[in-house]
Design brief:
The complex is a heterodimer of chains A (about 50) and B (about 500). With about 50 residues, chain A is mainly alpha-helical. Chain A is built from 4 helices and no strands. Chain B is mainly α and about 500 residues long. In chain B, a hairpin with a 3-residue loop joins strand 7 and strand 8. In chain B, helix 1 packs across helix 15, helix 4 crosses helix 6 and helix 6 packs antiparallel against helix 15. The chains are: A mainly alpha (about 50), B mainly alpha (about 500).
C-alpha cells in the first residue's frame, strides 16, 4: 500500500509549484500573477471572448 | 483564464477523499477511548472477559486505523497538485498545525500503537494499559491540530499578508490555536465521533445478540458503549450550540443558509421542520418555504443568547441593511477589487523602485485587505452557499443527533436488566445504527463546508482562486484514479471488518 501511494504521489500528484519553479521568488511571482489576473473584470472579458 | 470545470472536478475530488477519510476517522477517535475503558476494567478487575472484549474491539480498531491513515495521506496529495495557490498562500499558517500534528500526535500514536496491538503478554499490564490510553490521546490530539487548521479556514486570525511573496504569514500562533471556531469544531467532531463509536459497538453487539453468540461480550460492551454514548451526546449538543453561536458571529450567511432565513428578523424562530420553496432566489421577495414549523424565539437565542435579538437573513447580508449597519456584498466586492488593484500597483511601484508609491499602495491595500476575496466574486449572489443542501443536511443531522442518545438510553436500560436478547425489533434496528451514524456525521461536515462556500478561506480566498493552474482533463483523470482507489479501499475495509466480526472474539 505504501509503495502504491509513493508511486501515485510521484506520477499523478506532484507538487506543481515545486516542479515548475526553481525557487520561492518564482513561485511567489507565479501565484501573485494568478491572483492579479483573476480579477472579476478580466474574468468577464475572458468569458465573453 | 479560469476553468470552472477544473475547479469543480478538483472540489469533487477533495470532497470524495475527505468523505471517505471521514468514514474511518470517527470510529478511530471514539473506539480508541472505548478500548481504553474496556482495558481499564480488565486492569482493575482482572476479569479475563474484559481482556477478550478489549482484544476483539482492538482488532476492528486496527483495521479501521490503517484505512484512515491511508486516506489521510491521499488527502495531503491534493494540496500540492490541485490547490497549489492555496498551499502557497496559506502554507505558513495551515502547515504549522499539521506539522505539530505529525511531530507530536502522530509519533505518540505510532509508538504506542505497536505496543498496544502487539504487546499483549510482552509488556506489563500497567504499561499496556498506559499505551492504549496514549493511542487514544494521540489519535484525538491529531484531530485537534487538523481541526485547528480547519477552524482557521472558517475564521482566519493571527496572520498578515505579505504582498511581496503573495502569502499569508503567521503573526500570532496563540490566536490561531485558541480560536473559538477551531476549539468548537474539535469538541463537536470528537464528541460526535465518540457517540458514533458507541453506535458502532451497539450495532455489532446487536448482531451478536440476534445470532445468540458471545452474549456476555455483547452485554458488557453495550453497557459501556451506551454510557459512553450518553455522556458524549451531551457534549455533542453543547458544542453544536456553540458552533451555531460562532457561525452567527463569524459566518452569518452560513447560519442564514442553515435556516433558509432570507429576511432578517427580531425574535427569530428556529425551523424545526420545513420544505423549501426551490424556486426561491435571494432578493426575489418570494416565500422561502412551502411548509415550515418554527420553534418561536429559538434562533435568536441560539445566535445571540437573546430571544428578542435580530438575526440577519441572506438578503440583509447580500444586499446590505443600513438600518442594522450590515454592509452588503456589493460594497465588499468594491473594497476587494480596490485591494487587488492596490496590490497590482504596489508590485508595479516596487518594480519601478518608487518608494513613495510603494507606501501609498501598500496603505491602500491594507485598508481593504479584509475584503480581499470579495474582489474575485462576479455577483453578490455568488457569496450565498447552496441553501437547500445546507438546510436539509442540517435538519437530518439534528434529527438523527436527537435520536441517538435515546437509543443509547433504551439499550442501557434493557442491557442492565438483561432483557435485550428478547427485543428482536430493537436489535434489528440496531443494525442500522452504523449507516445512520455515518449519515449524521457526514452531513455535519456537509453543513460546515458547503455552508462556507464560495470560500476556501472565509472572505479572503474563494475556492476558484485557490485552485492550481491545471486543465480539467488532468483533474478529471486523477478524480477517477481516486474513485477506484478509494472504492477498493472501502470495499476491502468493509470485507475485513465483516470477516473479523463474524470470527468474533475467538482469535485464530
Amino acid at each position: 500500500l505504501a509503495i502504491l501511494f509513493f508511486v501515485l504521489r510521484l506520477i499523478f500528484f506532484p507538487n506543481l509549484l515545486e516542479i515548475r519553479f526553481d525557487n520561492d521568488v518564482e513561485r511567489g511571482n507565479h501565484v501573485m500573477e494568478r491572483l492579479l489576473l483573476q480579477t472579476s473584470s478580466e474574468r468577464s472579458q475572458d468569458c465573453s471572448e | 483564464m479560469m476553468d470552472l470545470t477544473a475547479v469543480n472536478w478538483a472540489r469533487a475530488q477533495f470532497a470524495l477523499t475527505a468523505m471517505v477519510h471521514w468514514i474511518f476517522v470517527p470510529l478511530t477517535l471514539g473506539l480508541s477511548f472505548l478500548l481504553a475503558f474496556f482495558e481499564t476494567f480488565y486492569y482493575k478487575t482482572g476479569n479475563p472477559e474484559w481482556k477478550k472484549i478489549t482484544r476483539f474491539w482492538m482488532r476492528l480498531f486496527a483495521v479501521n486505523f490503517a484505512a484512515g491513515l491511508a486516506t489521510g495521506l491521499i488527502l495531503e496529495f491534493q494540496f500540492g497538485t490541485n490547490w497549489s495557490n492555496y498551499s502557497w498562500m496559506v502554507g505558513d499558517i495551515f502547515g504549522a498545525p499539521l506539522a505539530i500534528e505529525i511531530l507530536l500526535a502522530f509519533f505518540i500514536e505510532a509508538t504506542f500503537f505497536a505496543v498496544m496491538f502487539f504487546g499483549w503478554d510482552r509488556v506489563s499490564k500497567k504499561f499496556h494499559l498506559f499505551s492504549t490510553w496514549m493511542v487514544a490521546i494521540g489519535a484525538n490530539l491529531s484531530a485537534l491540530w487538523i481541526l485547528v487548521a480547519n477552524g482557521w479556514m472558517q475564521h482566519p486570525v493571527g496572520m498578515i499578508f505579505n504582498p511581496d511573496l503573495g502569502r499569508f504569514e503567521m503573526q500570532d500562533i496563540k490566536a490561531v490555536i485558541t480560536s473559538s471556531v477551531g476549539i468548537t469544531h474539535f469538541m463537536h467532531a470528537t464528541s460526535s465521533s465518540f457517540l458514533f463509536a458507541s453506535l458502532f459497538v451497539l450495532s455489532v453487539s446487536s448482531w451478536f445478540l440476534l445470532k445468540k453468540r458471545h452474549l456476555q461480550l455483547a452485554r458488557k460492551s453495550i453497557i459501556v458503549a451506551a454510557v459512553f454514548g450518553l455522556v458524549f451526546s451531551g457534549l455533542v449538543i453543547l458544542s453544536g450550540d456553540q458552533a451555531g453561536y460562532d457561525s452567527a458571529r463569524f459566518q452569518p450567511i452560513k447560519l442564514a443558509a442553515m435556516e433558509a432565513l432570507y429576511t432578517g428578523r427580531e425574535s427569530a424562530g428556529l425551523v424545526a421542520l420545513g420544505i423549501l420553496n426551490h424556486a426561491k432566489k435571494p432578493g426575489d421577495g418570494q416565500p422561502a418555504f412551502s411548509f415550515g414549523i418554527r420553534i418561536p424565539y429559538m434562533l435568536s437565542f441560539l445566535a445571540n443568547r437573546d430571544i428578542k435579538s435580530f438575526v440577519p437573513g441572506i438578503d440583509d447580508l447580500v444586499y446590505g441593511n443600513p438600518e442594522r449597519e450590515i454592509e452588503g456584498v456589493n460594497d465588499k466586492m468594491k473594497k476587494g477589487r480596490a485591494a487587488i488593484e492596490s496590490l497590482a500597483r504596489y508590485r508595479a511601484a516596487k518594480k519601478n523602485k518608487d518608494p513613495a508609491a510603494v507606501q501609498e499602495h501598500l496603505r491602500a491595500f491594507r485598508a481593504n485587505q479584509n475584503n480581499f476575496g470579495f474582489g474575485y466574486l462576479e455577483s453578490p449572489e455568488q457569496a450565498v452557499p447552496h441553501v437547500p443542501t445546507v438546510f436539509y443536511s442540517f435538519r437530518i443531522m439534528v434529527i438523527l443527533g436527537g435520536l441517538f442518545p435515546l437509543v443509547c438510553l433504551v439499550y442501557l436500560c434493557l442491557a442492565v436488566k438483561d432483557r435485550l436478547p428478547q427485543q428482536k425489533w430493537l436489535l434489528r434496528f440496531g443494525l442500522w445504527l452504523v449507516p445512520l451514524g455515518y449519515l449524521a456525521s457526514q452531513l455535519g461536515w456537509v453543513v460546515t463546508e458547503m455552508g462556507r462556500q464560495p470560500w476556501a478561506i472565509q472572505n479572503i480566498l474563494p475556492v476558484h482562486v485557490a485552485q492550481s493552474d491545471l486543465g480539467a482533463a488532468a483533474v478529471q483523470t486523477t478524480f477517477f484514479i481516486f474513485l477506484v482507489l478509494l472504492g477498493t479501499l472501502v470495499a476491502a475495509d468493509v470485507c475485513i471488518m465483516l470477516k473479523q466480526i463474524k470470527i468474533g472474539p475467538e482469535e485464530k
